[in-house]
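Repro case for the chain-ordering regression, as requested:
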Amino acid sequence: MEVLKQRVTMLTNQEVLSFLNEVKKEENSKQHGDRCKMLATVVYETKKYLNASPAVTQNEAVICELIPKLAPFKLTGAETLQVINLRPANTTDVQLLIEETEERFPLEDELEKLVTTVSECLPPPPKR
Amino acid sequence: MFILSLLRDTVAIKPHQLSSDQQMVIKKRLNERLANKVVPDLGLCICVYDIKEIGDSYILPGEGDCRARVTFRMIVFRPFVDEVIEAKVIESSRQGLTLSIEFFEDIFVPAEKLPEPHVFEEDGQVWYWEYAQEDGEPPAKLYMDPGKIVRFRTTEIIFKDLKPELTIEQQKTEKSMEVKGTMASTGLGCVGWWTSDENEEEEAVEDEQDEETK
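-- result from build under test --
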């Protein structure tokens, strides 16, 4: 087997979760002999992790709505991905995800605005 | 956390499968071979995302299998350096903490990367963060015991080519893919440490509302 391109793109946790839900449905509709055992294990475990993460309450629409609203904050692609995956709910969380926060966001207000934007667009994560 | 990778592999299709949907057969063969496996220097394969191209198939002399070169995309777990991930503590030892994200359990945070100052409690084999309080009270012991949900920052991903002739003992300790992380930064460590303020506020609001209704 050869790797043609290691990273074509990155996926958000929500995309992976909804894809795995489809895979699960497809597998369930098959006969027992046609199912793939290894796949069932990894799909179950990955879903278990993602179902406890903010991804479970998100859908494509809310993410598409959020991304243009994040443009004024000039986040990098990786940072945007992290913001979607972890849904920071306070400034401490945001500072963790954004590099050199103090230089890029000298005003605390800007950071709070970012937190409010994220909290408004993305639904709250499931309670543990 | 997850990436899409473009891969190419040769897939053999058995003669009796020729009548069924080729895409399905190929997907199944690829998933059987790769799902839940670590590809060196790539990551942990989760499942086939889609098939981009099925090349010309050919038959080798002396067998009935149809072989085709298939180009496909795969969902792969491969965190990037500096990525923050939430995980569960599953093991605690003097060397550090082992974390799990259900489908991947080879995440290690070495002792020196725990929040400073950290203390190891022999009794119970657990780590705690000695958090100095401002009001002169003795420092709080914030425990990181197994079962707690923590956040860590990825620092390194190590791939190791494992030889097939390993003893059972070695198979347990050797890892083909290991993620190393750190928890020594504001916001990292147990999730509860950083959200408690908010809860208290919520509780305070609830208390006020209770009083109003009275």
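Ordering looks correct now. Chain B has two domains: 2-77, 84-204.
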